[in-house]
Amino acid sequence: MKRMIIQGGNRLSGEVTIGGAKNSTVALIPAAILADTPVEFDTVPDILDVHNLMIILESMNVKSSFTHGFLEIDPTQIIEAELPSKAIKSLRASYYFMGALLGRFHRATLIFPGGDNIGPRPIDQHLKAFKALGASVSENNGTVHLDAPNGLHGTRIFLDMVSVGATINTILASVRAEGTTVIENAAKEPEIIDLATFLNNMGAQIRGAGTDTIRINGVDTLQSMNTHTIIADRIESGTYLAMAAAVGDGVMVHNVIPEHLESFTSKMIEMGVDLQIDSDKIYVPRVKQLKAIHVKTMPFPGFATDLQQPLTPLMSLAEGDSTVVDTIYPKRVKHIPELQKMGMKIEARDGMIVIKHTDQLHGAEVSAGEIRAGASLTIAGLMAEGTTVINNAGNILRGYDRIVWKLNRLGAKVSIEDDSSVKI
């Protein structure tokens, strides 16, 4: 168990560079096993999820090495093997191995994946797509068995709900299938475009990524010819923008794709943050006065569910009542009781989160129930008077590239400790 210790009250200033997108990376690594050659990724975030995915690769005799943001994966000697349950259970995105293994071997067996507990996230749409492609699906005691002894065959698949995971898994399963697959009501997230770009550069034929209809012509082989640079993480970007507005004296955020953040930055501007947006960087000046806002999360290009929690501490500084309605994960409220321990006036009622103006937060011992709740508590800890101890800080490290190093470079006083005896 890890704890994050934050000495509050330090204003932040300087520069921070955003890492590669977590939500791209956790799909790209399973996608790599579809290649018939070694593959290389650049700007890979140094997060726990990457290391857990490497453990899963190793169980299949897929060698990988990771240093300074550069990840090499060699799937040329891949074998079918039982995947390590601890690593599978540690991150939900391990379910992308279903689509990748089905595409590679025409069969797969995985225990039900773990990850953040933020409410129901069923995989029925994934399984529906696999069945449509020709696979039989059976579930037994938390284990999913997929088998397509006659191979996978292109078809038309309509997803009943917009799902990033189901869209990605369908792409992974169908990219080497026979014939043409059409995914309708597909998710449009930038990470899906990133995955399609990687696969197309290896010879895949994927068209329409980023729209609600994706067409995939199956190919016989995928061969990497160059290094794939992962797009910037829009959730990490938004987290640092919110943090800089809450406790910053002028922070420049580098390696940002502003087009991926428009729904978020528009809300910050609406609050009264004078963002200075450039082509690949955003400057956040010191903020003096903020107005209350109303946020409703939606599928991309709407306001991302992953950014409602990191924005919450900033909303507590605004005059008046701000509200959040999360249409994606309504049960994403683990941060609320923890922020209340720190003195924030926040509550969930009638399917809505209400954040009232709070003059001062104070340090407390809290727990990061999942990644983005942990980000919210980190920002609150920086704002608070005194010391904040965040238990289960491993959840934060799962999603934020070198966060302690980055925060301390900006002037924060943050550390990670293993000793469970740490007390305030």
Protein traits:
single chain, four-stranded mixed sheet, alpha+beta, 424 residues, globular, 14 helices, peptidoglycan synthesis, RNA3'P_cycl/enolpyr_Trfase_a/b
- Which class of secondary structure composition applies to the elements? alpha+beta
- Approximately how much beta-strand content do the residues carry? 15-25%
Rg estimate, integer Å: 21 Å
User: In one word, what is the shape?
Assistant: globular
The number of distinct β-strands equals 23
Number of helices: 14
Report the average pLDDT across residues: 94
**Unreliable stretches, pLDDT < 50, 5 or more residues?**
115-121
* Biggest sheet overview: 4 strands, mixed
How far is the first residue's CA from the last residue's CA? 17 Å
Spatial order of strands in the largest sheet: 21-22-1-23
What report would you give on this structure?
The chain is α+β, with helices and mostly antiparallel strands. It is built from 14 helices and 23 strands. The protein has helices at 22-31, 48-59, 85-90, 96-105, 124-132, 164-174, 190-201, 234-247, 262-271, 308-315, 335-341, 371-383, 394-399, 403-409; strands spanning 3-7, 12-17, 39-42, 63-67, 70-74, 107-111, 136-140, 143-147, 156-158, 180-184, 205-207, 213-217, 228-229, 248-254, 276-277, 281-284, 294-297, 322-326, 346-349, 352-355, 365-367, 387-391, 414-417. The strands form six sheets. A four-stranded mixed β-sheet has the order 21-22-1-23. Helix 10 (308-315) links the parallel strand 17 and strand 18 (322-326). Helix 1 (22-31) runs parallel beside helix 4. The radius of gyration is 21 Å and the shape is globular. Belongs to the EPSP synthase family. MurA subfamily. It is found in: Cytoplasm.
